[in-house]
Amino acid sequence: RNQPNLFIHAKNEDSQYDAIAERIKAIHSKEDGSDSQIVITHTHQDSLKNIMEELKKRGIKGKLAVKKYGHSMEDTFDFKDRNLVLFSKIHSLKGLQFDYLIFPDTEEEKLDFETMFVESLEGDIFRTGFKLSSTEKESIIKNSLFMVFTRAKKRVICSYVNKNDSAVYKRLP
Question: For residue 49, what is the enclosing H or E element?
Fold first, then answer.
């Protein structure tokens, strides 16, 4: 339903963030009256904060999505803002849609999907690990990526420095 996905293969992290910032500025510079809501996503909060800081250096400002207990995302952000730039973890996107989804740093080591399958932390009843086969884990990872790619109304933009280690590039046909 959206335009072809765009892959940014950068020579290093700085050029990756430069390219993403240029793309965001181009999206927001359109004067055709269309919505240009953008979500930038990743698997971990620390990664998002780093991405947010790098893009801020390049003139891109946005808000970090931190869901407050007992509140929906709508209580925290103005989803009627046509130029909203939101930084959100992947699992927080379920049920939401944005015009553009940007997924930087898609290398396996940066995504660290394996943390989804870690045994539960002592005393943490909300993080229960499961004993899964590698096939079952791969299925869950692919389902998570599918969910991410269905959040964009117009286009998905992914980036990486190492194409051979990009989880998105390797897993999606």
Answer: helix 45-57
3-state SS class at 157: strand
**Predicted structure pTM score:** 0.85
CA distance 21 to 4: 19
Average predicted confidence (pLDDT) for the chain? 84
The residues, ordered by sequence, that sit 6+ positions from 151 with a Cβ below 8 Å of its Cβ are 39, 41, 93, 96, 97, 98, 101
pLDDT in tens, 100-124: 999 999 999 999 887 777 665 555 5
**β-bridge pairing 85-89 and 6-9:** unpaired
Pairing of strands 98-103, 85-89: unpaired
